[in-house]
């Protein structure tokens, strides 16, 4: 039958949409050993064995993972200089192949035959490491292995006595060249940084390693939700584009990342949710390989977080099937991989709320929606969908009530637990639903008679639309909307709204960004900005904190910054810091801390940064004496910038009720806190001004 014009248009649009997705994301496989992004073929776990327990591989494979990541130990395979014994890994590869699993091998760590420390610092050691790496790649060539150059060389635990970018890059260059010479078709990745350490990664790229590497591996650990990694992925992807050789597509690999069920504020239930959300975040962010840390718990101490990253419990049951007790994380992995097997990620559907996630996965015969929110409260969302019914299941596989779409829309309640909705056949309204645009926006406090909106475009496409101020009280803009036209390579833009008069001491304003069709792409509910009195900065003193044996020097004073904070009469505090080698931080503590009124949702400061990579935070205590430590963005900029410190359940907290709830009223503990996350010697000067409470 010849399709009607409407159906023909729909089919053409779906085809073009699929072409657009592939073209814009650049998901063509850059190396044949790397799986395609957006599919479950790249999901895996870390393991710590070459000889599995009986029944272990069967349970691991039944969980749906496709990859394992494992140390390939230098000292264990070269016990005599120049003699290599890879037999343990031959056995492991044979076991993996039986269960159709692939492997990422970490070429680590040092070897006492050549080096004194857990690093490779000498030329003799570099050449020995390179010979060994080349021999390993040649021995196992053609197995589709990813060869990773070291593990977390940017922290002293894995590169001692202290991380050294020049030592690491010299070793990595030698090893990568040796692998290319010995086994030219093998895939090489690195540097497996702890966190997404942009400074260390840039050092690798400056050394020319992208000429030799096929992917960049990172470990995006955090205690906040996995969705927050999207911004860091974007920044890293932009950096890779600057350095990648012409015509070479170099993806990002999430080589190790997990959440301990014994961290403060976490448990096995939340860990299971976060595994699903982590993998879904990576699937929707062009990450071809995602390795969950860890396969099973490493111990039984309920107070030791390092023992509880596993997807299954620690104890092995030899005579039972399954041989380990599955945690919710295992059930989440099994549910996600079995549900999305055969599907590919198509798009994130626009909801207008950046906290809400509606991911569409498609196969030839089905559509699958995966829905959740990072908001603390469950709520309804409405999505476009042609009339149909959806089978529904929870993130751990429990069947949920069937959901139906009527009158071209689907109404469903979402929470922080992902749910899967599956329907048969194409669905016109879903397939044509507008793509969410990864826009971020912040309303900065008024300076003089100007309110600025900072917009970030994290997608690789142009954006045209409108920025609107909504629900404004206490301010009078000359106009409430302005056009926004951002090019694909323009990541940030400041939109200025002129005011008729100076604002009151506190005011309220929200924000909405729409595309050219009127579709809401970003919505920030109105918030109240309350400026704290200038005298608060006058009455503070410095407290040294952290390891008392680490040398440090901190001073504070009211002083002018190198650049004036435009049209502001706010007092400015100058903070000079000198961190020694180790764990140390400083706190700016009010002498007579005032009570904070109401129920704040966050705080804000203007900070004049020095690009030294320190971390700004602050502390408040609630009525149960529970301490809350909201964090701001790492200081990787120079000049004035407005930084917010959200107060929510993801904020660090301890003591008091220990119930992960904020109990008002709050009182200041530390008006400002400066941490040195690298724990390396670091000195500099920053300025802070205009503390604000947000409601």
Furnish the topology, listing elements before pairings.
Elements: H1 5-25, E1 43-46, H2 56-62, E2 67-73, H3 74-77, H4 87-98, E3 102-108, H5 123-139, E4 146-149, H6 165-182, E5 187-194, H7 198-206, E6 215-219, H8 229-243, E7 252-257, H9 268-283, E8 290-292, H10 328-339, E9 344-348, E10 356-362, E11 366-373, E12 379-384, E13 388-394, E14 399-405, E15 409-414, E16 419-424, H11 428-431, E17 439-443, E18 450-457, E19 463-473, E20 481-486, E21 492-498, E22 506-515, E23 520-531, H12 535-538, E24 540-546, E25 552-558, E26 572-579, E27 584-590, E28 595-596, E29 602-610, E30 615-621, E31 627-629, E32 638-646, E33 652-654, E34 666-675, E35 682-694
Parallel strand pairs: 1-2, 1-8, 2-3, 3-4, 4-5, 5-6, 6-7, 7-8
Antiparallel strand pairs: 9-10, 10-11, 11-16, 12-15, 13-14, 13-16, 17-18, 18-21, 19-20, 19-22, 22-23, 23-35, 24-27, 25-26, 26-35, 27-34, 28-34, 29-32, 29-35, 30-31, 30-34, 31-33
């Amino acid at each position: 039958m010849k399709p009607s014009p409407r159906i023909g248009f729909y089919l053409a649009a779906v085809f073009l949409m699929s072409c657009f997705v592939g073209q814009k994301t650049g998901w063509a496989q850059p190396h044949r050993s790397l799986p395609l992004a957006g599919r479950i073929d790249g999901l895996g776990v870390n393991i710590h064995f070459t000889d599995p327990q009986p029944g272990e591989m069967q349970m691991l494979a039944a969980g749906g993972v496709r990859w394992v990541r494992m140390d390939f130990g230098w000292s264990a395979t070269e016990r005599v200089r120049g003699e290599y014994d890879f037999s343990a890994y031959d056995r492991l590869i044979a076991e993996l192949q039986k269960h159709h699993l692939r492997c990422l091998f970490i070429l680590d760590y040092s070897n006492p035959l050549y080096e004194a420390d857990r690093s490779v610092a000498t030329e003799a050691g570099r050449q020995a490491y390179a010979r060994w790496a080349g021999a390993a790649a040649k021995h196992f060539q053609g197995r589709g292995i990813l060869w990773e150059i070291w593990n977390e060389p940017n922290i002293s635990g894995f590169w001692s006595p202290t991380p050294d970018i020049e030592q690491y890059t010299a070793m990595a260059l030698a090893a990568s060249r040796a692998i290319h010479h010995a086994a030219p078709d093998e895939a090489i990745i690195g540097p497996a940084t702890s966190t997404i350490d942009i400074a260390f990664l840039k050092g690798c790229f400056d050394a020319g390693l992208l000429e030799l590497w096929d992917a960049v591996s990172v470990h995006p650990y955090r205690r906040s939700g996995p969705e927050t990694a999207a911004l860091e992925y974007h920044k890293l992807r932009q950096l890779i584009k600057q350095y990648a050789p012409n015509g070479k597509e170099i993806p990002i690999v999430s080589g190790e990342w997990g959440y301990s069920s014994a961290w403060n504020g976490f448990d096995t239930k939340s860990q299971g949710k976060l595994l699903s959300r982590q993998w879904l975040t990576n699937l929707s962010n062009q990450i071809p390989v995602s390795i969950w840390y860890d396969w099973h718990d490493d111990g039984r101490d309920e107070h030791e977080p390092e023992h509880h990253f596993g997807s299954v419990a620690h104890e092995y049951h030899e005579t039972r099937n399954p041989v380990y007790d599955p945690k919710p994380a295992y059930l989440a992995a099994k549910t996600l991989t079995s549900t999305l097997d055969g599907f590919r990620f198509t798009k994130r559907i626009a909801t207008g709320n950046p906290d809400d996630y509606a991911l569409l996965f498609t196969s030839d015969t089905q559509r699958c929606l995966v829905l959740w929110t990072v908001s603390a409260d469950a709520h309804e969302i409405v999505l476009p969908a042609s009339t149909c019914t959806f089978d529904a299941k929870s993130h751990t596989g429990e069947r949920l009530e069937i959901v139906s779409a009527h009158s071209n829309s689907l109404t469903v309640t979402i929470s922080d637990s992902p749910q899967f909705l599956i329907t048969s056949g194409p669905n016109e309204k879903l397939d044509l639903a507008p793509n969410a645009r990864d826009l971020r926006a912040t309303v900065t406090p008024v300076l003089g008679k100007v309110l600025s909106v900072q917009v970030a475009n994290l997608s690789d496409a142009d954006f045209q639309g409108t920025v609107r101020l909504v629900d404004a009280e206490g301010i009078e803009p000359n106009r409430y909307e302005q056009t926004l036209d951002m090019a694909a390579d323009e990541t940030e833009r400041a939109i200025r709204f002129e005011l008729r008069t100076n604002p009151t001491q506190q005011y309220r304003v929200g924000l909405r960004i729409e595309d050219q069709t009127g579709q809401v792409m970003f919505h920030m509910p109105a918030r109240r900005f309350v400026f704290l009195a200038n005298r608060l900065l006058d009455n503070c003193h410095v407290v040294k904190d952290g390891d008392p044996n680490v040398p440090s020097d901190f001073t504070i004073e009211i002083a002018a910054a190198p650049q004036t904070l435009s049209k502001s009469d706010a007092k400015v505090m100058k903070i000079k810091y000198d961190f020694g080698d180790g764990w140390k931080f400083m706190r700016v503590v009010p002498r007579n801390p005032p009570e904070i009124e109401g129920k704040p949702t966050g705080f804000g400061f203007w900070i004049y940064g020095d690009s030294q990579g320190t971390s700004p935070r602050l502390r408040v205590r609630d009525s149960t004496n529970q301490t809350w430590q909201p964090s701001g963005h790492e200081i990787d900029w120079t000049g004035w910038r407005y930084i917010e410190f959200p107060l929510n359940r993801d904020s660090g907290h301890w003591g008091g009720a220990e119930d992960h709830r904020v109990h008002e009223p709050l009182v200041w503990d530390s008006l400002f806190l400066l941490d040195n996350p690298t724990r390396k010697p670091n000195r500099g000067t920053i300025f802070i001004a205009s503390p604000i409470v947000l409601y």
